Amino acid sequence: MLENKFHDFFERRASECGNNLCLTDGETGKSYTFESLNRRVNQACNLLLELGLNTGDKFATFMTNSIEFIVMYLASMKVGTLIVPLAVDMPQMKIERMFNELKIKIAITDKIRFKPLDAIRNRLNSLQEIFTIKYDNKNDLNNALSKMPEDIDNVSVSTLSTPGSLYFSSGTTGTPKGIPQSPKNLLVAAENLAAAYGFGVADTQMGILPNYHTALVTYGFWPGFCVGSNFVLFEKFSRTNFWKNIEKYRVAFVEVVPTIISMIMNPPEDISKYNISSIKFIGSGSAPLSPDLQRRFEDTFGVLIANKYGLSETEPTHFNPPQRELRKEGSIGKPLPMCEVRIVKEDGTLCISNEIGEIIMRGENVVSGYYKDSTATADAFRNGWFYTGDLGYFDKDGFYFLVDRKKDIIKRGGAIVFPNEIDQLLLSHPKVVEATAFGVPDEIYGEILKACIVLKQGSKVTPDELIEYCRQRLEGYKCPSEVYIIKEIPKTHSGKLLRRELKEMFLKGNLNGKN
Hints:
Number of domains: 2
Radius of gyration: 23 Å
CATH class of the largest domain: Alpha Beta
């Protein structure tokens, strides 16, 4: 990156890639080249500036995936406003709180979500305007964009280090934290990830994760943007059309989460009718991927999966190659070159290979801190290092393995139990599709283990059989005392399983299932 401003970087990409397709609407086929997308993004910049938004001012998107989301996202990166992507099922009470706490000035929504937003409009103190897409020209965003100039004043745009987006953490261990990402954070990681993928201009990438999930852009759009390839964006994941769309757009890569892999496998579709020779591999991140699920998927469809790791605070940092002869099963891979990674003990001393500690990292990919949260920032960002809260280890070959979240550790009678180990074992059972273990208070042992599982469609197994399955493969103190068979395990929007919520449900007596 030679430029100091994202606007200049985008201008260079538009000049170099010109008529290469950059962004395509998967539903309609409407496409933008790098050059035409840059012009549209400039119009969006001018709209934001005309509405009086300055560096650090916030606007929210409250809609499913669309081309307009990417346009406004890139515009925010150019002018230094903060786009705040909201989950589409966010309740009105939380919307009201976030809008007022963040002083959100502009909202962009779709037909379905306009009505609940408009219903509380008079209670959103800072809101100036609601724009819509696909809603019969009701203050239509595209109409407003089309009236704007296609060039912008280079003096008015922000630097590469100025944050342009404000995502919020998954909240798996408590209150979500605001994470301001800058173009530099994103581009440094994207260039490294693109090199790890080994992709080029002809390698089309497909986006199906929701726009309020950072992986949509960090694992898909940005690496393609850096190599000059096309990103085909779909409104949402469709199990029915997954393989069909890969064939239609000659897709080389798509990023998913383990939940999607499980859905595609339950039950697997006969894909012999599709020509999917374009697909090089599938990426999986955001939550631990079961080695057993990975192998079964690959054997069923003949498509390899690359396991990856990263956080919203760091962007993608680790890559485990999809090729079986190059990867290590269960590993998150090796660190990408732009990021220095260490594993440390509680006292801060370095761990040696195969010794479990907390993963910490530093590099230009790491954000500078949490949004207006000095306490959380001081706790996680120390002496130039970001403390991830994830426990792991590395082996003699430099492959890293994720063990568990630091806050999820269970201490049973003085012995340490990592619930992710129990998760992975239960997931290896041929009739289990989802599993989560968690600890609850116990007068004798301090904590004991419980587990919830979801069965594969049409499968039957008893909790006692699952407990025995664990006893045959784990030390006794690691085995759950009870297993609940439930219909669905609560998850974050990024697909992480919510142990904390299951524990709370158990303590309140609201955990319904067979036990």
